[in-house]
Amino acid sequence: MAIALAVAAALAYPNFGFFHVHYKSPIHWHEAFHYFMGAKYLPELGYTRLYEATWAAGREMGAFAPIRQIRDLTTYAPRDVASIDPASVRARFAPARWQAFKKDLLVFGPRNEDWARLFFDHGYNDPPPRALALHLLVRWVPATPLSLGLLTSLDYVIVLAAFWAVRRAFGDLATALAFTFLALSFFARFDFIGGALVRWDWIAALLAGVAALARGAGAAAGLGFGYAVVARIFPALFLLPLGIKWVQARLTGTRDPALSRCLAAAAALVLAVTLALVAVPRTRELSEEFAAKIRLHNAGTYSNNIGLGSLIVFHTALWVEHPDGSLFVPPAAALAARPASWVLPTLSAIYLLVALPLILRARPLESVMYAVPLVFFALSPSGYYYSFLVLLVLLPWRDGAADPVRLVSMALLTFVGAAGFAFELGSGELLPLFYKADIQLGLFFLFWLLFEYVRLAAPVGRSPSVSATTASTTRGA
Question: Are 300 and 311 in contact (CB under 8 A)?
Answer without folding.
Answer: no
